Amino acid sequence: MKNQKNKKESDALETNQPIDELPNTYHIPVLLKEVIHGLNIQPDGVYVDCTFGGGGHSKGILRQLSAKGKLVAFDQDDDARKNLLDDERVIFVPQNFRHLQRFLRLHNITAIDGVMADLGVSSHQFDEGGRGFSIRYNAELDMRMDQRQSLTAFDVVSTYTETQLHKLFEQYGEVTNSKTLAKKIVAVRNTLSLKTIDDFKNAVREIVKGNPNKYFAQVFQALRIEVNDELGALKEMLTQIPSLLKPGGRVAIITFHSLEDRLVKNFFRRGSFDEQPDQNPFINTEPVNELNAVTKKPVVPSEMEMKQNTRSRSAKLRIAEKKMMV
Ligand SMILES: C[S@@+](CC[C@H](N)C(=O)[O-])C[C@H]1O[C@@H](n2cnc3c(N)ncnc32)[C@H](O)[C@@H]1O
């Protein structure tokens, strides 16, 4: 079951096509109406879009804001700048959202009315062959969302130990033969080049299981999550949200695979990332949860949205609200 969920994301990413009748070819916003409705926007409020991308969700938020409202938009990819909006209410922060609080403070913002994130890569990043995110192109094995960072996917496959590689392919890609793959990479990397996507695919070709496109999509998903420390950044960002939100303020997060969704679900429900609360009956070790989950079950796209935008197929939206009093 878990395997199927992660595979769905890889498939959706690999088959994503821009849709002609929809305006934005950089990225089509997913669950747009649901996010805007879920944020319960206060017209004069201060909002944060942690993942600006093509600006689809940001535009939706701005439409609900008055001239007094403010939107802070983060994106660690310099390419997102080309979508910047000519709007005085917008502050663009070209940084990783794991530094949310720090950069808000820099702009003298200590309390916000709402925050959202639409996780993962944009269609643009995926469709730019040279960025190395997609198995459809040959390019350097890169996969950095933030090109100022030094670690690339090539560094991961050429320097990580066999155990580290095994763990990341298993946990982040649910690759069926992750142990064999890790072993193969370590065995060939001193004699064969792994510099490009084609080099890498050729080097491990003989141990590929099942449909090669699906197999490599899972392998690439795992590498991408590692290179960008996607789960680490998500955890850090979520942890900062309760103290930033004003009472009654909302947080909306869209995830694309079960690893992310589990973190968001647990954090919204219990204020912690752990699956099970501690069972000591004498000491209450549960963290104080400052949030109330508004969505008990994740909101998923309609049939129509999934048909129009295949990338939306594995999207899950969860919303929480800061309690009035803790
Ligand atoms: C799925 S796209 C967002 C698309 C956007 N909602 C829209 O409607 O166009 C994700 C964007 O978030 C950015 N991103 C992902 N993780 C990030 C992080 N940790 N910090 C900052 N930006 C991040 C990516 O560079 C990408 O542009």
The largest pleated sheet is described as: 7 strands, mixed
Shape: globular
Uncertain segments: 1-23
Q: What count of helical segments does DSSP give?
A: 13
Distance between the termini: 37 Å
Summarize the structure in words.
With 326 residues, this protein is α/β, with parallel strands linked by helices. The chain is built from 13 helices and seven strands. A seven-stranded mixed sheet has the order 3-2-1-4-5-7-6, with helices on both faces. Strand 1, helix 3 and strand 2 form a beta-alpha-beta unit. Helix 7 packs across helix 10 and helix 11 runs parallel beside helix 12. The chain is globular. The N terminus is likely disordered. S-adenosylmethionine binds next to helix 3.
Layout: helices, strands, pairs:
Elements lengths: L1 H14 L16 H8 L6 E4 L6 H9 L5 E5 L15 E4 L6 H7 L5 E7 L4 H5 L25 H7 L2 H12 L4 H11 L8 H8 L7 H16 L2 H15 E11 L2 H13 L20 E3 L9 H6 L7 E7 L4
Parallel strand pairs: 1-2, 1-4, 2-3, 4-5
Antiparallel strand pairs: 5-7, 6-7
The site of S-adenosylmethionine has 22 residues, from α3.
Structure at a glance:
The chain is of the alpha/beta class and 326 residues long. The chain contains 13 helices and seven strands. 40% of the residues lie in helices and 13% in strands.
Annotation keywords:
40% helix; disordered N terminus; 7 strands; 326 residues; 7-stranded mixed sheet; alpha/beta; binds S-adenosylmethionine
